[in-house]
Design goal:
Layout lengths: L1 H21 L16 H27 L5 H34 L3
């Protein structure tokens, strides 16, 4: 369980860095607003990578069924897709947990 949490935290940090690099650094930000990555950019990057991993694993599985891919490559692609989905699930669970905790806070 600890390894899943630490890998999810590491994946979150990496995705945040990728989202930050994807944001266009223009000077049109209103005064008082930070120029950091928007949450929507982070979510877009975080969701697109697992989707790409799943699509690659599906392509590798189809290629293996046609006899055009090595079984080790297929296993690696499926494992990568599984880890990506587990990471997204762990981050989602932590976000939901944090949201529920905020809802329980007294006003």
């Amino acid at each position: 369980m600890d390894s899943t949490i630490s890998s999810a935290a590491r994946a979150y940090g990496e995705a945040l860095q990728r989202a930050a690099s994807a944001v266009n650094d223009d000077d049109s930000a209103p005064a008082g607003k930070s120029k950091g990555p928007a949450f929507a950019d982070f979510v877009r990057v975080a969701v697109s990578e697992p989707i790409a991993a799943v699509q690659k694993s599906e392509q590798m599985t189809a290629a293996a069924a046609a006899g055009k891919a090595d079984l080790a490559e297929v296993a690696m692609a499926v494992t990568n897709a599984e880890m990506a989905i587990e990471t997204v699930t762990a981050v989602r669970d932590r976000v939901v947990s944090a949201y529920q905790e905020i809802l329980r806070m007294p006003i």
